[in-house]
Amino acid sequence: MAQWNIVVAGCGQMANTWIEYVKTRHDAAIVGLVDVQAEASLSMADRHDLNCGLYSDLKEAIRRSGANLVFDITTPNAHLSTSGTALEMGCHVMAEKPLAAHMSEAVQLTKIARQAQRSLAIMQNRRYLRSIRAYRELIRTGAIGSVGFIGADFFLAPRFGGFREEMASPLVLDMSIHTFDQARFITGADPINVTCQEWNPPGSWYRGSASAICTFEMNDGSMFNYRGSWCAQGFPTSWEASWRVVGSQGTAIWDGERIEAESFDKDGQGSRTQGTTDWNGQEGHFGCLDEMFLALEEGRPAETNAEDNLKSIAMVFGAIESAKLGKTIHIPTLLAQGLSS
User: Fold this and answer.
1) For the whole prediction, is pTM greater than 0.70?
2) Contact 319, 212 (CB under 8 A)
């Protein structure tokens, strides 16, 4: 069994979960913390009782620690530099979403990983929930027939402070990647076209557009409609969103917990089914990290590897481009432009 010597890049609040996970493994150890603010890495080391090097430069951290794996938990604007440097220095990378802050950077990182023959896997923790696995299985068994419509509503009002409240597209760039990736995971379909409008509604505490409506044409002929806001106070949805998938023989709903399908036979007689699953993995971040490490052990791409995640992040950047230009964006063309640049 390989020993994973890990450098954690970025010592913000999110790093706590990643470090707690490592402490549950016998084959992994934190050998370095990297942050441009020395007090952040020192505080993180103290909090988790880590006896490791503290650095402000990633290259130095990798060279001096002998790391073979880097956790990139930096802000999106730093992912190209951080993940790219780690990959080029021979490390595998597990990174927080989104893959990158721009489409060209996401494609570039994917190319770097391919050329370095190293794994770049992205945290998509909302794939790793018993409820979404059960919902996916219910739909894919054909309980509601052929899927024609996927709807997801996401309405919450978090007050993060920090970089999110300064972003131009905080909802679409930083959060909707989860819901877009969930749509692909649930249905197995990939995006073809997107039309999007985003705006900042009255009462918003974000500088950028905190609300959006997006409609995607998928490659199985279905349509996926996303409605969301990050400054919607009152009657919140779950963080997993509120879902409705309509098929040729019925409808399946999921609100983050409850799963139910109502299907109809040829005589119009309806019946209801609850979703179940045999999946017993860990949920959330720990479940996604389990899969990432297992993929490394088995020498295969992780379920959320960058090559696949490009399709989800292209939904994000396609939506942003559509809102900016006021027209429908063809996502395969967006991907091809990135690959050729």
Assistant:
1) yes
2) yes
